[in-house]
Specification:
Layout: E1 18-19, E2 25-26, H1 28-45, H2 54-75, H3 77-86, H4 96-120, H5 125-143, H6 149-178, H7 183-218
Antiparallel strand pairs: 1-2
Length: 219
């Protein structure tokens, strides 16, 4: 018998080498690595497609709604400012314009900080939108109990802006993952939510304020 030939029914002399039925040597560690590669490729192929598909368009529709909700109230604050300036208990009060300035300015200023926090702890990105929307609703609800402009600055101004920042940030972070070639179209559709509410919401708010007052409108 040739010494270089190893029968298939005998164990190989080296424990790290396995001989297949065809006489091919294979490292068991490479088998494990290949299985991980196959599993990874299967996971990637099971992800929803980018630039289209039901999931991508549903996500974009949700971003449109969040954009409209978050930025709609600050852009229509002029209606609230006119009402506050001419109705009790805020008539004649100073700093009424600061309310809208806080709501808009704080969201612009703290968005880089919120982006950094959510990138540092990405597991909280999905919870950020829910928590932000809840904070916004609580801020508007608390502002309906206000009796002076300081209360409105804290609630409708500061608290609303902080909640809006956390609600809006995941839309920017996730849209780059859902859209690649159609990214410009996706951003345009999402930002159109601000334009739509900027044109419609002031009319709705003016009617609600004149009919029901600021407390019911904010609730």
């Amino acid at each position: 018998m040739n010494d270089s030939t190893v029968p298939h029914d005998h164990p190989p002399p080296n424990g790290d080498v396995l001989v297949s039925k065809e006489g091919l040597a294979q490292d068991p560690r490479s088998v494990e690595d290949n299985s991980h590669l196959v599993s990874s490729s299967l996971d990637e192929s099971s992800l929803p497609p980018v630039d289209g598909g039901k999931d991508a368009w549903l996500f974009l529709a949700a971003c449109f709604v969040v954009e409209a909700l978050v930025w709609g109230f600050p852009f229509s604050y002029g209606v609230f400012q006119e009402y506050y300036s001419t109705h009790e208990p805020f008539q004649g009060s100073g700093n009424i314009a600061v309310i809208g300035t806080c709501a808009m300015g704080i969201m612009y200023l703290d968005l880089p900080i919120v982006f950094g926090l959510l990138r540092r702890w990405p597991k909280y990105q999905r919870l950020s939108t829910t928590g932000g929307l809840i904070t916004m609703c609580l801020a508007l609800g608390m502002s309906s109990f206000s009796n002076n402009t300081t209360h409105l600055i804290v609630t409708q101004g500061v608290f609303y802006a902080i909640g809006g920042s956390f609600a809006y940030s995941p839309c920017i972070l996730f849209i780059d993952e859902w859209f690649n070639k159609r990214k410009g179209l996706a951003y345009g559709i999402m930002w159109a939510g601000t334009g739509l509410t900027g044109a419609i919401l002031p009319l709705v708010m003016e009617w609600l304020l004149s009919t029901y007052g600021f407390r019911t409108t904010l609730r």
